[in-house]
Every structure is written in structure tokens, then in C-alpha cells.
Amino acid sequence: MKILPVSFYRRPDVLQIARELLGKVLVTNWNGEYTSGRIVETEAYAGELDMASHAYRGITPRTTVMFGDGGVAYVYLCYGIHQMFNIVTNMKGTAHAILIRAVEPMEGVEIMLERTGKKVLDHALTRGPGNVGKAFGFHTSQCGLSLQSKELFIADDGLILDQKLIVTSPRIGVHYAGDHALLDYRFYIKGNPYVSGKKKTV
């Protein structure tokens, strides 16, 4: 696997990056507990211009990391329970970020099961951002960690994803964002059982 360079994240088009993250491999290695999985669902957030983004109201203690250079983790606590893993993109001053919503497990499944309290592997293990955060061992203390570190990185293992399988849709759970809730800023791999949200028959 080849670790994605920092230049991959420090580009201006957050939608393009969110799309290109599909099929890439997320790796965490906290205290020797190695886990990996293929990213199958992402959501883009376009900073201060995006009413669904945490950065919409500007710099706060929580969002400071989003306004830095891209290529680091933004981990926040949702509902006091879920550790949500996001990737900061673009350059300093532009608070773009991408939420990793679903991952297909590859390595370290036993570790993921232990972290989540599950007994057997099923598609719910890493379906949805809360489950991704738990299974991959994310915590807000990791906010700001470089994606070039030994503990956290995203890699390209050579998979060539059929572009016809990439689907776009509005983001999930951002109804408060008005018209911005309707933007097609969510990307996922069609037919992958780990993708979150209500399943539709085609």
C-alpha cells in the first residue's frame, strides 16, 4: 500500500477529494492494535459557506483544527457518545472537511469486535460514522493528528474503482442546514452492504 501524500488533501475541491477517497484504505494503529478497512461512504463539508458544516459560524475552540492545513484528523463527539472521524482538507484558512461514514473491514476484525462489544462480524460493525469511530478506535484526543503518522493514515492499495458504482446523494442528518441539506455532497459505492442510510430498491 502507498500512503496518500499530504498533497492529496491540500487541494481546493472538497467534493473531488471526498469522491476519490472511496476505495482507499483507512488504517489505524493505536498502541499496536492495527486495523484497516476500505472506505465506502463519505460526506463533504465546504467550510464557512456550508450551513451543514461546523465551520459555518467561524473559528471556535472545536473548529480551530478545521481552519488549519489539510491532511489531519478532525474527531468530534456526537450526542456525547460517538467519536466521529473527519479529514481536514484544503489549505490553512479554508475549513473543508470530509466525514468518513462507512468502511468495509479488512484487517483487525477481532480488535474491531472487541471495541464495539460485538460477538460476530456483520455489516453493522462499520456502517455509519459512529460505528466507524468505535471500531477503528477514534477519540477526540486524536484531533489534529497527521494522516502521515504511523498511527493513522489512508493508503492506496491499487484498487481501481468502477466510476459507474459511485453514487451521490444529499447528506444524512443535516436537515437543520436548509437548502444546503439538499446538496449532493454524499458519496458511496453502490451495492456495498456497509453503506449507511436507508436502503432503496432500484
From TrEMBL:
One of its GO terms (biological process) is base-excision repair. Belongs to the DNA glycosylase MPG family. InterPro entries: Formyl_transferase-like_C_sf, MPG, MPG_sf. GO terms for molecular function: alkylbase DNA N-glycosylase activity; DNA binding. It holds the Pfam family Pur_DNA_glyco. This is Putative 3-methyladenine DNA glycosylase. The keyword Transmembrane does not apply. HAMAP family: 3MGH. Keywords: DNA damage, DNA repair, Glycosidase, Hydrolase.
